[in-house]
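note to self: the first set is below, dont mix up w the second
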Amino acid sequence: MRKGTVPGKRSGTTAERIAEALSDVSQAVERQFANTADRRGLSATQARMLTILSVHGSMRASDLADRLGLSVPTISDSVRVCVRKGLVTRDLDTNDTRARKLSLTPAGRYEANATARWRPFVLGAVGTLSSAEQDAFLEGLVKIVAALQGPDEPPTAGSSPA
């Protein structure tokens, strides 16, 4: 959030103020995540890859790219770097021996956990809300996420930002 700017004190409709506040939240979380990744010697994309593999398990590069919202060629450099650093392995896919699945190594799992330290940052902010405010906020967020994702994708509020 821009210093000195309080979402509730901005001008505009309530919907416009909510959109601006959500943008501020997104930027703050992204900045925290990128800073944590950088301190670990990882790019934000590499850290997101590790987080996704930690949460969802082994998967093909194409599935990982879909979850990241990037193309396979775009993530290929990050995959190579993570393999070289010993954080990810490329194993044969038992369902299709022409394909490879990406899996975390123990070092990769450690880094995924270390880069997930953005969660306390967010939980601390959410903790400033009362229980009733948290319930109402979650209900609203789930609706917003569903609308943003469209009818073909299930809502993912509550899952990692990665």
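second set (the one i keep forgetting abt)
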Amino acid sequence: MSISIDDIQQLEYTDLQFEHISTNKLNELIVYISSKSGHILELLYDERRVIKIHRLLPTKHSNGSTEKITMANGPSIGVCALTCTNQFCITGSNDGYVRVWSNDFTQVYIEAKHDQAISGLRTSPDQTRILISTVSGSLGLLNLVNKEHRNFLRSHTDFVADVDYDDTRKQMISIGDDGTIRIWCFATGKQLSEFTAEQETPTTVAYAPDKQTFACGFNNGLIKIFQLNSSVISTEISYVTFLSLSLSRFLISISRFLDIIQVI
């Protein structure tokens, strides 16, 4: 594909990766530079010269297999992070996908979906695994050999405002200024589920006495009752005076409130 010098200067670059290429005809240090527009620039480091420009497009699937990508018109895949091995180039995108490409970016071998945009990629020393980080604070690991992908760490991305403990299930619930409500396994530390509050910030949280529901107070005066089994909001009430209570008084009051809701 063709792209002008002006277009190159206007690209917003996101990451770069060095790779040493040694063949009978070439012994060079190659630099790959990714951009938000979905273009990957391939440069010869010693000559400071762009030799190739790749444009990443969405993949096509047929009967479960990945076909070759053509340079047809369509939206590009914005690249947030980039890393390379001797055999593959791996990109992380703002659509939450990690994609393992051939070195010429014409074919995708693996796609792994995450909950948020990818913020970083790192290759293991033996080049068999990729460490993946996202803007939501989670970490994942992609095995390039068996194509296994798993998330092994999640976290709040802002101040943790409150927590409560379920001694029956051995679980813990936490809320943060990042607008998320998260439930964790206390024994393993793994995140079990996550709720996201849009345009409001959770301030206080408490389990119901029967541990089947929990209540969360928000900065706008709302109190929402969540069902743990179905992850749905069963009740929503505006009761600003709760927010003026101390934390301990709030927990006592909300527990009694949940008892009343259950009776009703």
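remember for set 2: Residues 1-5, 62-73, 240-252, 260-264 have pLDDT under 50 and may be disordered.
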